[in-house]
Amino acid sequence: MNHVLIRSAFVLFALVCLYSGPAWAAESTLRLGAPWSPKTMDPQVDGYMFTRLGVVEGLTTLDEKLNIQPCLATAWTVSDDKLSWRFTLRDGVRFHDGTPLTAPAFRDALQRTIKKGALLKNVPMASVEAPDDKTLVFKTTSPFSPLPAYLARGEAGALAPSSFDQAGELVKPVGTGVFSVESWKLKEEITLAANKAHWGPVKPKLDKVVYKSVPDALTRLAMLRGGELDVAQIMPADAAKSLAKSNEFSIHTMPIGRCRMMAFNLSRDPFSDIRVRKAVNLAVNRQEIVEANLDGIGEPAKTLFPPQVSWANASLKGFAFDPEGAKALLAQAGWKDANGDGILDKDGKPLRVKLLTYPERAELPPMAEVIQQQLKKVGIGCDVVSMQVSAAEQTRDAGDFDLYLLGRGLLFVPDPDDNLMMDYFSENTFKKGWGAYHYKNAALDGLLQKARTTFDQGERKKMYDEVQVLLEADMPMAYLNYYVNIDLVSKKVSGYRMHPTEQTFSLETLELK
Question: 10 Å Cβ neighbour count for 336?
Answer without folding.
Answer: 12
